[in-house]
C-alpha cells in the first residue's frame, strides 16, 4: 500500500516573524503608511508590529503605542492564515480573529506578505 506524501512541517511562529520583511511585497503595499500590531495568544504567544512605510517593512517586538491597526488571534490561527489554510475574513467570521482599525486596510493585509514557500523562491 502506498504511503501518502509527507506533508511539509509548518514554520514556527518565530521563523514566520523573522521572514516577514523578506516576504513583504512593496508593490502590494504601494502608498501604505501604517503600523500593524499582531497580538498572538496561546502556547507560542507573541506581540510584535510591522511598520510599513515608503515601500519597506520593519518589524519590532512588543506593543506599539498607537498602531494603525491591531489584530488578536491565536498563534495557530496566524500560522493557518500565513500558510493559506484560512483567510483573515474566515478567521474573523469564525471569531478566531479580532481587529481594530480601518476595514480597507484589514482586507488588503494578506496581499502585503507572500506565503513562506514563495518567499524563498522569489
TrEMBL record:
Pfam families: SCP2. Signal peptide: none annotated. Transmembrane segments: none annotated. Residues 24-113 form the SCP2 domain. InterPro entries: SCP2_sterol-bd_dom, SCP2_sterol-bd_dom_sf. It comes from the Bacteria. This is SCP2 sterol-binding domain-containing protein. It comes from Pseudahrensia aquimaris.
Amino acid at each position: 500500500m502506498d504511503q501518502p506524501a509527507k506533508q511539509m512541517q509548518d514554520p514556527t511562529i518565530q521563523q514566520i516573524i523573522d521572514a516577514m520583511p523578506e516576504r513583504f511585497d512593496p508593490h502590494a503595499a504601494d502608498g501604505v503608511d501604517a503600523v500593524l500590531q499582531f497580538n498572538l495568544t496561546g502556547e507560542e504567544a507573541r506581540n510584535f508590529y510591522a511598520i510599513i512605510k515608503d515601500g519597506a517593512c520593519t518589524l519590532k517586538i512588543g506593543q506599539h503605542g498607537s498602531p494603525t491597526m491591531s489584530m488578536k488571534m491565536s498563534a495557530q490561527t496566524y500560522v493557518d492564515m500565513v500558510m493559506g489554510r484560512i483567510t483573515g475574513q474566515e478567521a474573523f467570521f469564525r471569531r478566531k480573529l479580532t481587529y481594530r482599525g480601518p476595514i480597507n486596510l484589514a482586507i488588503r493585509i494578506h496581499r502585503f506578505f507572500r506565503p513562506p514557500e514563495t518567499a524563498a523562491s522569489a
